[in-house]
Amino acid sequence: MKKIILSLSIAAILLSSFTIAQAAGKDPNTIVKQAFNKEFIQVKDVEWTTVNESGVYQAKFIFNNEPLQAFFAEDGQFLGTTRQLSKSQLPIIVVTALEKQYPDMHVATIFEFSKKEGTDYYITVTGTKSAMMLKASGSGELSIYKKNVQ
Question: Among the four 36, 94, 104, 130, which has the fewest Cβ within 10 Å?
């Protein structure tokens, strides 16, 4: 249950319009750093922050010439990664579902949230009168994650 709550809070924080991460008062503990080094090899420009007061550390870094963020609990548990995508990087099945269900909406931003249990996509779409954030599974299932996003 703790894993689900942490994952949902990370997704909500990352996908909001504002950056809620703040500079860490200190580097993460040795356990977190070891967990990071176990998950990621040959990264550049690692910058650590904490996510609010949740006990979650966020590492921003460059991996394969692409900016990524990884999240770890204080006990070193790997929670997942996020990265920003373009529409062309989404799975075809997700793009097809998006175009069928929301043909009049414009895609503003897309974030991929990958964890060991799977990958979800958070897509902010805008129209003339509304904006919302959709959650898409890799199988193309779309649901409204948050309405009236601005």
Answer: 104
